[in-house]
């Protein structure tokens, strides 16, 4: 699919051989705040998830894709979640796992590819994301893709003994 291929990276469906990569991400406590995770995931649960990852977005209301470079190095994950057919909207989340791969444009390219896919192939009217107010890298990433800050959720997430605010960003497909 040409829509999911960029200059430096491509997005692909999850495969059984991605188990260890996903297991490492899901059990990395340093990023649990991003996904509101509070417990580790077993390889068994992730294997079960991968066995069902082929299901259609219209059925499961989500889509998780792996971000890979053209040397087949696994860089991160990008998700479509809360897929709402009636209102033609969905949420987007992205994670570049290895800190050494951040700031190299992979996230920008992956987000751009996924936005085009959502608007062209899923016929969505809008996309949204939730970003902690202190996550400056994600704020810059989504704002550079045209997402607009439309709201502030005060004391939204509790992490390490403190409440943190979270911004709501939105991108409207003006092609409709």
From TrEMBL:
> Organism, per UniProt?
Lacinutrix venerupis
Gene Ontology MF term list: acyltransferase activity, transferring groups other than amino-acyl groups
Q: Which SUPFAM superfamilies match?
A: Acyl-CoA N-acyltransferases (Nat)
Domain (N-acetyltransferase) ranges:
9-170
What domain of life? Bacteria
Matching Gene3D superfamilies, A to Z? 3.40.630.30
Spell out the PANTHER family in the cross-references: GNAT-FAMILY ACETYLTRANSFERASE, SPERMIDINE N(1)-ACETYLTRANSFERASE
**Signal peptide, first to last residue:** none
Q: What is this protein called?
A: GNAT family N-acetyltransferase
